[in-house]
């Protein structure tokens, strides 16, 4: 909290623009468990996590794109009853996040997270992200220099590879409401995978198929892929991929800018 006073009289100094320093969140050690968009005035959603994600000690909730009111928030662990953290029912402003919320007891495997929320009148469609914190020994290994600054990028969706050796096909529906984009980036988490094919369908024009037929290691990403032409509205993104033998279930995140 800041308290300001207005100085008057002959000795009053010329007012200067206030400089506000916004602290940047260090995401190292945090893993995004999922993202959902508030589609209705009052909406209920679930993020499935699962034992293969590992154990976590803390949660943090981040709100993007608009303001929202969080009505209910509960966490179901692999064992034990549902847990509802205190002081979670309140309004969030765009770009706001909660403090780090400590779990009860020791590290816990999360089965799923349920929440009920609504967009505030006069605003847009808010997004909510849920992040979990893992100890250094439990978190995916990465070099500090490889941590990606995703400011300015929007995650269009995330899919987990379900198929076996023959691979899996998935689609991310985007649509006009997301806006126009100039670049794409793929991020692979949780395990290694082979990307077989990727195609981008725009609202208008031909399908775009960038050259991404390669093996991706866990926690690696592509370069920024320039989309053809000017800013484009993306209708959907389709990809075919497969997990590599001996690994776990990889996830692919698609980011755009």
How are the SSEs ordered, and which strands pair?
Layout: E1 30-37, E2 43-48, E3 55-56, E4 58-64, E5 68-77, E6 91-92, E7 101-102, E8 108-119, E9 127-133, E10 154-160, E11 168-173, E12 180-181, E13 183-189, E14 193-202, E15 214-216, E16 220-221, E17 225-226, E18 232-243, E19 251-256
Antiparallel strand pairs: 1-9, 2-8, 3-8, 4-7, 4-9, 5-6, 5-8, 10-19, 11-18, 12-18, 13-16, 13-17, 13-19, 14-15, 14-18
β-strand number = 19
Q: What is the number of helical segments per DSSP (H or I, 4+ residues)?
A: 0
Average pLDDT, to the nearest integer?
A: 78
Fraction in helix:
under 10%
Q: Write down the Rg.
A: 21 Å
Proportion of residues in extended strands: 35-45%
Characteristic terms for this protein:
single chain, 257 residues, mainly beta, 5-stranded antiparallel β-sheet, 44% strand, globular
Q: Would you mind describing this structure in some detail?
A:
The protein is mainly β and 257 residues long. Helix content is 0%, strand content 44%. It is built from no helices and 19 strands. It has strands at 30-37, 43-48, 55-56, 58-64, 68-77, 91-92, 101-102, 108-119, 127-133, 154-160, 168-173, 180-181, 183-189, 193-202, 214-216, 220-221, 225-226, 232-243, 251-256. It is globular and about 60 Å long. The two termini are 34 Å apart.
